[in-house]
Predict the 3D structure of the following.
Amino acid sequence: MKNDGFDRRAFLKSAVAGSAAAVTVTLPHSAEAQQPAAAPAAAGYAFLNLEEAAFVEALVDHMVPADQHSPKGTDLGINIYIDRALAGGWGKGERLYMQGPWKQGVASQGYQLPLTPAELYRAGITAANAFCVKTYGKSFDKITESQRQEFLLGLQAGKVAFENGPPARVFFTTVYQNVMEGMFSDPMYGGNRNKAGWKLIGFPGVVAVHYQNVEKFRDRKYTADPLGIADMS
């Protein structure tokens, strides 16, 4: 969007460390979160169902719009990165302590919800769409660009609360982190397609292969075609 008081490019780059301090509540595993979702959507999704895929695609394309710097989020594969992460060990909470007790903590304690990341996404998308329907008359993927921006800014600032769902700001923080990861992680994980994210910031990729140029280009610009893990095999 243009001249609307908010630069989405700046939004992508802005820090949200404050929101990363989890708003913690006593939130039991809801029946909806624990139930298996509908079959994954088409087009290669392993976790996201049709409604969730529509939400994530609209989200990543809004947060990473196509411009002179890079393709849009879905063309970068950020939606695929998120889907694979949710379908894998991270989404299942394999490295999270999930035994409770679920008491309200403080900001420095980080994520404190009794939900795996996959459950957080599932419940959060449902709650986000319900909020958008109540506020704008349509689900997130069908509202206007300016309405999406208003909604996301509200999430970022902690001004949006879900009536039935996880803490909205915790949901936003997790999604934001995943979008950043999908844009700048190694392409083998599904995002950063064609290394466009790395090219955007001038990152050379697998740094070890450039060690011999550290001293040679000290205090000078060093330009190289970025290499990913797959390029080394």
